[in-house]
Specification:
single chain; 179 residues; mainly alpha; 2 domains; 0% strand
């Protein structure tokens, strides 16, 4: 993936701020341009629509999630705690994008990403509890994965070094494995 220009990064940063304040649907490209002190046509030079701008913000989350999954699936044997630690690290790095996605599920649907996220969870659960889990095993995997993700956005003032073991240990407990 090419590195975005400084202007693109500034646009994305201001868009994140406004999206957090007002929501994606209630934020216009004109408001983003005004906050940046640029014209709307200048913003359109970088992003042809709000949807393209939102996609550019969540794209690192999507690409990184897929890369993480492929890396885990390529391993000859998955160590559940290591997978959960990597899952935590990934979500912690992408907390801001994750908050945007979680608060704007309609936007996620518009971008066609709901199916992607659900498929990831299935693939990760299969790595943790096998390809044909019982309902109890599948429920534990959902709790473990969802719990880790939620911890990264719920406890924003807790340093990663403190939060990671707490979240991963809780996920291991949900799965019924020793950390």
């Amino acid at each position: 993936m090419a590195r975005p220009s400084d202007t693109k990064q500034r646009i994305q940063e201001v868009a994140r701020e406004l999206f957090a304040e007002k929501g994606v649907q209630k934020t216009s490209l004109q408001e983003i341009a005004a906050r940046l002190g640029i014209t709307k046509p200048a913003l359109y030079y970088h992003f042809s629509s709000r949807q393209e701008l939102v996609r550019s913000i969540v794209e690192p989350l999507i690409e990184g999630g897929e890369a993480f999954l492929l890396e885990q699936e390529a391993l000859p044997e998955v160590e559940p705690q290591t997978l959960l630690e990597g899952y935590f690290d990934f979500h912690y790095r992408h907390r801001r994008e994750l908050v945007l996605v979680l608060t704007e599920l309609n936007t996620l649907t518009e971008l066609g990403l709901i199916e992607t996220v659900l498929t990831w969870r299935e693939r990760l659960a299969a790595l943790l509890v096998g390809p044909e889990p019982t309902l109890a095993q599948a429920a534990r995997a959902v709790l473990a994965l969802g719990g880790i993700q939620d911890c990264t956005v719920q406890f924003t003032d807790v340093p990663a070094a403190e939060l990671r073991p707490a979240a991963v240990n809780a996920a291991c407990a949900a799965l019924g494995i020793e950390p």
